[in-house]
Amino acid sequence: MHATLPLLKATDFPAIRRSAVDTLQVNLGYTCNQSCLHCHVDAGPNRREQMDRATVERVLDVLVAKAIRALDLTGGAPELNPHFRDLVREARGRGVHVIDRCNLTILSEPGQEDLAEFLAAQQVEVVASLPCYLEDNVDRQRGAGVFERSVRALQRLNALGYGRDERLPLSLVFNPQGPSLPPPQAALEADYRKFLGERFGIVFTRLYALANMPIARFGSTLVSKGQFRDYMAGLRAAHRLQNVAQVMCRTLVSVDWQGFLYDCDFNQMLGLHLHEGGTRHGRIHLDDWLEMDLDGNPIVVADHCYGCTAGQGSSCGGALA
Q: For the chain, how many structural domains are there in total?
C-alpha cells in the first residue's frame, strides 16, 4: 500500500483552533465484516485491533469529566468490539447521545441477530453507510450482495421505528465512486428518498454526502492509478474559506482503539496526533485529557484537510454549506 502522508504534510491549509468539545468520536477497532474500496481506516475481517475494557472505562470517565454530549462510535464495525453494548448502555445511562456508524450488513452477521433491537431499545442514532442507491454501484464498491443485505437491514430498522420516530434517527451516508466531489447533498437526498421509497418502502431521516479522503486505501488507489495529484488539485481548487469555520475538528476529539487522541478520524489514520505537551505517554491519551483543557488547542492540519472544505464541504455530519 502507498503511504500518502509524505504527499500531504507540506500544506498551506489555514491554521485553525478547537473551540469547546461536544463530541467524542471513538474508534473501537479495525475489525470489520467488509473491506470497502473507499475505507480510510483499512478495516477488514483480518484486522484484530480492538479497544480493551480498561480503555472503554476511561472513555466513560472522560464523557462525565468533560460533560461530553455525544459519543460517536466508529470502526471497523464498532459493533464487533466485545465491549460495544456495555459502552452504549453505560453512556446512555449517563444521558449521553450515542451514534453508531453502522455498515448495515453487520445486522445480519452471526451473533448480531438482536443488534437492531438493542440499538432501538437504547435509542442509539444510526448513521448507516450506503454509498449509492443503485445495486451495481454499491456491490462494486463494497462487495457482492452488500446492497441486498443493506436494503433488508434498512427495512428492519424501519420496522423498529428508525427513520419514523424522532427518537430513532436514521441517516444514510453517500461516498462518490471515485476521485470526484459528491454532488449537492439536498438534491441527492431527494433522489435517495424517491428511489428507496418507491422501490423498497424505505424511509430515513437525512442523507450525508461525504468526500473520499486521499488517505489509506483510497489514497493508495489514487497513487497506483496516477490520479493522486489531480484529485488533490481538484480539492484545493474547490476550497471554500467559509467552510473552515464549520469543520468538525473544532468541536470533536477523535480517540483511537488504544486511547490516544487526534483532531479527527482522518488524522488518526495518518498518525497525526494532537499537539504534544509533555504528557506521560509522550502523546496525549485519555488519561492526560482528564488533567488538561483542550479548548483553544491548535489543530494539526495537512493537505487532506481540503477534503473537508472543498465545494459544499464534508464532515461526519455531511455537507457544511
A: 1
* Alpha-carbon distances, residue 264 vs 83, 130, 190, 194, 215 (angstroms): 22, 22, 29, 33, 13
Upstream peptide bond of 76 is cis (omega within 30 degrees of 0): yes
| Rounded distance between C-alpha atoms, residue 75 and residue 297, angstroms | 25
CATH code where residue 61 lies: 3.20.20.70
Task: Determine, yes or no, domain membership for 231.
Answer: no
From the first residue on, what is the mean pLDDT of each consecutive set of 10 residues in the chain (321 residues)?
Answer: 87 95 95 63 71 97 97 92 97 98 92 96 96 77 80 97 97 89 94 95 96 88 94 96 94 96 93 72 86 91 95 86 74
Return all residues near 290 (Cβ < 8 A) that are at least 6 apart. Answer: 61, 62, 65
- The angle formed by the CA atoms of residues 306, 136 and 80, to the nearest 5 degrees, is 70
Q: Indicate whether 56 belongs to any domain.
A: yes
In a domain, 1, yes or no: no
pTM over 0.90: yes
Q: Buried b / exposed e across 296-308, counting CB within 10 Å, b at 16+?
A: ebebbbbbbbbbb
State the cell numbers at 73: 462510535
Boundaries of domain holding 121:
18-213+244-295
* Residues 214/232, Cβ–Cβ less than 8 Å: yes
Distance CA 26, CA 252 (A): 10
What whole-number distance in Å separates Cα of residue 172 and Cα of residue 120? 17
Assigned domain for 232 exists: no
**Distance (Å, whole) CA 305 – CA 312:** 14
